[in-house]
Amino acid sequence: MKIAFIGTHGVGKTTLCYDLAASLKRRDLTVELVREVARECPLPINRDTTVKAQAWILHTQIAWELQAEAKAEVVVCDRAVLDNYCYLKRAAPGEPHVKVLEELVRAWLPTYDVLFRVPIVGDPSFDGVRDTDLAFQHEIDGLIVATLEAWGIGCVPLDPSHRDGWSAVVLDALLPVLRPQE
């Protein structure tokens, strides 16, 4: 099973990934976590990203997911290819490479068993990598929402008014399809 948390930067995806991974390990499942790839990118990211940077991120995301799937029953992804595609779409609208990478993203999306959409509930804090510009954060969030809708991609939306309960909602959504705790 492969699960991904999707959403703009600074919304709590990483925290949810670690919470979920810990909960699943306590149920004796083998779990691999695919960290946020953009943090390792040697090229510009955030508002300064380029087609090359986003191509690197997309291909690396897929490679890391394949590697994780070979090792574990459950893969938890801190982002999906969809998120990274939306950063690309913002950086280079209308460029031919965007269309090629869109085909790759559309073909890869069915490999996720569940997507959880994490909404904006506060301002992003600077962590050495994350962009803190609120307009940029909201622009990416809007692109993610619009792309989900335009492509007819289903996801489990997390309620912004119940952030403290997100981990429980995620686990409750997954437990029926996971093997029982031993």
List the helices and strands and how they pair.
Blueprint lengths: L1 E5 L6 H13 L5 E4 L16 H21 L2 E5 L2 H11 L4 H13 L5 E4 L16 H18 L4 E2 L8 H9 L8
Parallel strand pairs: 1-3, 1-4, 2-3, 4-5
Helix pairs in contact: 1-6, 2-3, 2-4, 3-4, 3-5
Radius of gyration: 16 Å
Averaged pLDDT, please? 93
Number of DSSP helical runs: 6
Residue stretches low in confidence (pLDDT < 50, at least 5 long) are: none
Q: What characteristic shape results from the CA principal axes?
A: globular
Describe it for me?
With 182 residues, the chain is an alpha/beta fold. The protein is built from 6 helices and 5 strands, in the order βαβαβααβαβα. It has helices at residues 13-25, 51-71, 81-91, 96-108, 134-151, 166-174, and strands spanning 2-6, 31-34, 74-78, 114-117, 156-157. It has a 5-stranded parallel β-sheet with strand order 2-3-1-4-5, sandwiched between helices. Helix 1 (13-25) crosses helix 6 (166-174) and helix 2 (51-71) runs antiparallel to helix 3 (81-91). The radius of gyration is 16 Å and the shape is globular. The two termini are 18 Å apart.
Features:
47% helix; 182 residues; alpha/beta; five-stranded parallel sheet
Summarize the structure.
This protein has 182 residues and is of the alpha/beta class. The chain has helices at 13-25, 51-71, 81-91, 96-108, 134-151, 166-174, and strands spanning 2-6, 31-34, 74-78, 114-117, 156-157. The protein is globular.
